[in-house]
Amino acid sequence: MEHYSAIKKNEMPLTVTWIGLKIVILSEIASIFAFATCGGFKGKTEILVSCVKEPENKTITAAFGYPFRLNEASFQTPQDVTVCGVDWKKYVLIGDYSSSAQFYVTFAVFVFLYCIAALLLYVGYTNLYRDSRKLTMTDFVITIVVTFLWLVSTSAWAKALTDIKSATGSSIVQELKPCSIQGVMCQFVSVTSMGSLNVSVIFGFLNMILWGGNAWFVYKETSFHSPSNTSTSQGGIPPPTGI
Prior knowledge:
The protein is an alpha+beta fold. It has one domain. The protein is built from seven helices and four strands. The chain has helices at about 1-40, 100-125, 125-130, 135-165, 170-175, 195-220, 230-235; strands at about 40-50, 60-65, 75, 185-190. It has a four-stranded antiparallel beta sheet, with no helix packed on it. Strand 1 (about 40-50) and strand 2 form a beta hairpin. Helix 1 (about 1-40) runs antiparallel to helix 2 and helix 2 packs antiparallel against helix 4. The two termini are about 20 Å apart.
């Protein structure tokens, strides 16, 4: 009976470690999608401009992308000519959202690198990880911190994305000074779809859920958690009886 209980106690941490390993692999893949969908985005917003002096309508565009310093995205005209007597290059989009975007992408990259290190530890040094209280406690603390930072960074990036959509949408017509000049008419045409940026937010919260779930399995490896042998002592293999 004692031998059976010892085997069950020794097998439990190994099972937990492999479950945590699978979650880390999923987290690594999710972190790649998180920083790739955000960091690789490029788009533009277009406005149709017409005026009394020039009967032909002209389309002006402002290109933007990661890290979303919109205040550096100036409007461009076809063949770099003035439209309605206005030098549109002097006018830019409104807002600088680089802090939220860079924080989100940089954090996702660091998480990706940490996942690689964790995989090496789980696979190559499993026994060392199970036997070292410092390693398990360190892993648990890091997991909790990463979960919290995923919540913070994703929430900040989601708010910034909402502002980016507003700053590059139809409201820019009211913000551009030349559009309020008499005789100049501006009409919003289109803006690049930001579906990939929406996906980046989804993967951010997905990462938070994965790391939150992994925290439970890492917790089981720490000295705070001791597997209960109550079910083993009450059920399972009955003790030997006399002849």
